[in-house]
Amino acid sequence: MRTLRTVEELRAALASDRRAGLEIGLVPTMGALHEGHLSLISRAREQCDRVVVSLFVNPAQFNERSDLERYPRQETHDAQLATEAGADLLFAPSVEEVYPPGFATTVEVLGVTERLEGAARGVEHFRGVCTVVTKLLCMALPDAAYFGQKDAQQVVVIRRLLRDLNLPVRIEVCPTVREPDGLAMSSRNARLNADERAQALSLYRALIAAAEHAAAGERSAEALLDAARAAIVPVEPEYLALVDPDTLEPVTQLDGPALLAVAAHVGDTRLIDNLILEPAAVPIFTPNTEKAMTTCSA
Ligand code: AMP
To answer: Among 13, 66, 129, 283, which residue carries the largest CB count within 10 Å?
Structure first.
């Protein structure tokens, strides 16, 4: 696997593949790779002829300077992991390569960026995400780009971005990869001490508590959120919301699949997680069973 630093090198490396009609897959990451990232790379490997992994800690999407400064960086190890998972090229540009002096253009998606993460982290966060994803797509010109359900709102935002800008890229979404106890894998988990690691599990517990109530037939959003709130203690959620998976508007009833999303600080580390809740199947009464029941109760 080769590591490339400039857009020119990346384009040159992919030019003949593109001319030959090979399918190119891009997996955008900020590094500190774990099994979650590797699942995206493996999926790209299965589906594409060439797999490009980008590794860029994007300053534009960090709303807290200390979060950016403390973000784990381990390029040599990442390169080894990406190779093992099947990457052909690692694109690891400098900040100056991505944002040269005088850089003045941003990409902003309205609406779906204003809720959940956008409300908590400010509009700069998704402006930074949208700008860098658009740039990475323009740099690599992939046929498909791979994202994780772990960042559910990011997927919604990027789908909207691709549609609105008519960008001819297929988006592939891979399920959230979890630790054996259920904690969603995240590059930030490395910062948790033992106590915080135990507390971090409450986010998953909260999601599961709501899912269990949904499976038992509960459809009221407020009741489902109450179940989640009771299970997240002692962690204080920054938000805990049940929303439409496409518009991210809050729902009041679980009438179809809905996204339960949570964010919380555990110590100094901000974590997010989510689960799609489905309403429990309603028993179907055919005219005959209805009649039988009426007969019984009569
Ligand atoms: P990041 O390096 O955090 O920007 O993540 C890069 C990509 O990996 C994003 O599309 C994330 O949604 C995805 N990702 C991060 N953690 C996980 C996980 N636990 N499971 C699946 N995908 C993940």
So the answer is: 129
